[in-house]
Amino acid sequence: MPILEARGLRKRYEMGQHTVHALGGVDFAVKRGEFIAIMGTSGSGKSTLLHLIGGLDRPSDGEVTLADRRLSVLSDRQATLVRRRNVGFVFQFFNLLPTMTAEENVALPLIIDGQDLRKHQHRIDAVLELVGLADRRDHKPDQLSGGEQQRVSVARALVTEPSIVLADEPTGNLDTKTGRAIMELLRRSCDELGQTMVVVTHDPRAAAFADRVVFLRDGRIVGEVGLAEIERMDRRVSILIGAMEELER
Questions:
Q1: CB-neighbour burial class of residue 58 (10 A; exposed 0-12, middle 13-18, buried 19+)
Q2: Model pTM?
């Protein structure tokens, strides 16, 4: 059974007298332990799809099933609990609390869920070690580089051991070298922890770390490419650049 499934997913926004169709009927599924990238040009519906499958927004039509729970039949409170306990989020702009240390930012999902941090200290220590920030745990965000802040964001997404991690342009504000390090970290989390990953990106170099890449155009899935059997990273990037060029024609 897939960990995540979307069927007939549509999203409409009313803009004055006009209706904007952000998604136009998306069918999408992710297996446990799979690493998926969603690619498309600006305005293709990538972030909208991510918000819907993560339970941050509700679709106009269609159904999302997350960790065996149909989100449409849940109350807002129930949906919040499902999201909190099953989904980790990594955002483009880090979304760290400036008054908290790196360790406190990592522990924030546990605090919000009312957990006793003493019982989870081993997990907090483990994810800080995983992202290479064990020695920076007492630093606040303004004392960290952009790459370090994004690594805190990744650790925060992993600390609750969620069923799935959703990342929205996780390398968008980073230079090429740092962005690659973040994608290597997400790839390692998938391989070593069995973590399921869904990454939205416009960057072929970031998407090349995925097992499978799904392409969106005008709110619809228009194709996909499997990369799991292609070992060379430069070959993966070349294939995705070609696919994006076709998409933009």
A1: middle
A2: 0.88
- Taking residues 126-131, what's their average pLDDT? 89
Cα distance between residue 69 and residue 65, in whole Å: 5
Count Cβ neighbours within 10 Å for each residue of 141-175 and write b for 16 or more, e otherwise. beebeebbbbbbbbbbbbbbebbbbbbbbbbbbbe
Residues 217, 219, 224, CA angle at the centre, nearest 5°? Answer: 50
**Count, residues in the chain:** 249
Between CA 177 and CA 12 the distance in angstroms is: 37
CATH number corresponding to 4-248: 3.40.50.300
pLDDT, tens digit (0-9, with 9 covering 90-100), for 147-161? 899 889 989 998 988
Residues 6+ apart with CB under 8 A from 193: 158
Pairing between β-strand 87-90 and β-strand 164-168 as defined by DSSP bridges: parallel
Q: What angle do CA 181, 197, 67 make, to 5 degrees?
A: 155
Residue 45 to residues 11, 21, 24, 141: CA-CA distances in angstroms? 9, 9, 9, 30
In the chain, domain spans: 4-248
